[in-house]
Amino acid sequence: MQRIPIIDPRAVPVVGRDAHLSAVPLERFLPAALRLRFLAPPAWQVEFPGDGRLIDREPANASVLVPLVVRDEGPAVLLTQRTDHLTDHAGQISFPGGRAELEDADAIATALRETEEEVGLSRRHIEVIGTLPTYTTVTNFVVTPVVALIQPNFTARPDPFEVAEVFEVPLAFLMNPAHHQRHLFEGPGGQRTFYSMPWYPTPESPGYFIWGATAAMLRNFYRFLSA
Questions:
Q1: How far apart are CA 16 and CA 140, in angstroms?
Q2: Could you tell me if 191 and 17 are in contact, meaning their C-beta atoms sit under 8 angstroms apart?
Q3: What 3-state DSSP class applies to 17?
Q4: Alpha-carbon separation of residue 18 from 21, 22, 125, 220 (angstroms)
Q5: Cα–Cα distance between 97 and 110 in angstroms, integer?
Q6: Could you read off the pLDDT of 62-95 as tens digits, one per residue?
Q7: What is the pTM of this model?
Q8: Dihedral of the CA atoms 112, 169, 80, 100 (nearest 10)?
């Protein structure tokens, strides 16, 4: 039986939170500590290599940038909200990134090019410190997350066709499993589980619902930093 896409993830029941797991210690967020972690990575196990296929097509390579903006109060992850009219993943929260092109030398080149195109973040502000294991999306994109430190003296210039908003979430919030919600979706094709990490900048804010591939890659990043 064919799997169906999840249209309204907020409505899918939450079946658990991971408050029993420890948050990543704050000292591991220092730029020097982050660089060292990628230079000498610990033994660790990726939790989510992918989410299974929703459509049957040939795999395609893609990359995203996991941009860690260096702030005095601690690093923040720069994320985008996609515009509502896009064919794929409209309105969803994502990292800047996209499909690899023939002119891209490697996965890092793809992430840097896509980031500049989508949010106007110049490469001169970006220090790539490493990559995480690939994540295969339901649409069979094999995505390489490229982790980078971002100097804060930049001005985002999002592409209005693709990006509705650029915002930041404290890395400490995302690396605390107490904020990781597990959802169980039941429908044709069987059960599916996914994570979400809702972020509310203020109590009055409608919030940002981080879920799906973005949340899964952040969860893998948590496993890497907490190992």
A1: 27
A2: no
A3: strand
A4: 6, 9, 34, 14
A5: 7
A6: 999 999 999 999 999 999 998 754 455 546 899 9
A7: 0.94
A8: 30
